[in-house]
Structures are given as structure tokens and as C-alpha cells.
Design a protein that fits this description.
This is Lipocalin-like domain-containing protein. By secondary structure, this protein is of the alpha+beta class. The protein has 4 helices and 8 strands; from the N terminus they run αβαααβββββββ. Helix content is 40%, strand content 37%.
């Protein structure tokens, strides 16, 4: 009887178990978000900027009055740019002030500007980071997150959710470890 397959299976189980254990140890600590990539949101801001920059270009006065209610497109463009800048600044504030604090007891503190949510975390058998998060209303949400990159002081997570249209949307968040 050949014992090689049994040794191979045992080695594979030990290797996978040790990888999960190393990931769990490496993820401990406090992480601050530095960049969020979300296709839908990023497309919206890019398209909005393009619209503001080009609105009214090449339109007749009649068309400008019909579409925008004014001939003073420059003033309208300036007002829209202020609104855009305000929304973009708020987004960047959230993007750079959100935190994850993974603790050894499997608790996690998810921090957003002005609020913290508590939960539990673990790495499941598929290698996904699972956050069981309780919001301020006492509702628990289960998030399944792919760990794309975890090296030294950089952590990149892919959050996946299904949209109302039934397609999968992914947000990729890059974190930097906070120094004590």
C-alpha cells in the first residue's frame, strides 16, 4: 500500500492551516484606509467632471436656455463645480479616515468618521476574511471579504456585493498599518 497520497494530504492540510494562522497573525492591529476603488462611484465622478467641463459647449443660445435655463453657462458651471468639489471632499474624508482594528480576541472595531461599529472577525476555510459586524441599530451583517494583498504594512481588501440589478460590484480598499 502506497502511503504517499496520505502524506501529501497531511502536508496540504498542515500547509493550509499554517497559512491561515499566519494571515490571522499578520492582520492584527489597526489599519487606516488610504484608497478606495469602486467602479460605479469612480465612473460617476469621472462622468460628472466631464459633464461640468463640457456643458454648453457648442450649443446655441436657444439650446442653452432650453437645457439649462440660462445663457450664463460659466456661472452655472462654477456652481456645479462647487457642489462636485464638496461631494468629492466628503468622499475623500471617508476614504482616508476609515479604520479597521483587528484584535487577538477576534473582535474588530470598524471606524468611520463620527462612528464606530463593533464585530467579530475570522478567516474562513476558503481564505476569506469574514466580518460579523453589528451596527448602531443592533443589526448584524456578515461581510465576506477577499484579502488581495497583505504584506508588511499594506492590506488590500476586495468587498463584494450584489447590486439591485443583480450584478456583482467590487470595492477594493487599500489600508496602511497605523504605527503606535
Amino acid at each position: 500500500m502506497n502511503k504517499r497520497p496520505a502524506y501529501f494530504v497531511l502536508l496540504l492540510v498542515l500547509l493550509l492551516g499554517s497559512c491561515r494562522e499566519r494571515t490571522e497573525k499578520k492582520i492584527l492591529g489597526k489599519w487606516r484606509s488610504v484608497r478606495i476603488e469602486e467602479r460605479g462611484r469612480d465612473d460617476f465622478f469621472r462622468d460628472s467632471k466631464r459633464f461640468i467641463d463640457t456643458m454648453g459647449n457648442g450649443d446655441s443660445d436657444e439650446t442653452k436656455l432650453e437645457l439649462y435655463g440660462t445663457l450664463n453657462i460659466d456661472s452655472l458651471r462654477q456652481e456645479l463645480q462647487k457642489q462636485y468639489d464638496s461631494a468629492y471632499a466628503a468622499l475623500k474624508d471617508i476614504e482616508t479616515r476609515s479604520t479597521l482594528h483587528f484584535k487577538e480576541d477576534s473582535s474588530v472595531v470598524v471606524g468611520f468618521p463620527g462612528t464606530n461599529e463593533l464585530g467579530k472577525w475570522y478567516i474562513n476555510d476558503s481564505g476569506l476574511l469574514v466580518l460579523d459586524e453589528t451596527n448602531k441599530y443592533g443589526e448584524t451583517e456578515h461581510l465576506f471579504i477577499a484579502i488581495r494583498h497583505l504584506v508588511n504594512d499594506t492590506l488590500q481588501l476586495a468587498f463584494m456585493r450584489e447590486t439591485e440589478e443583480g450584478r456583482l460590484d467590487t470595492s477594493v480598499v487599500t489600508f496602511q498599518r497605523e504605527k503606535n
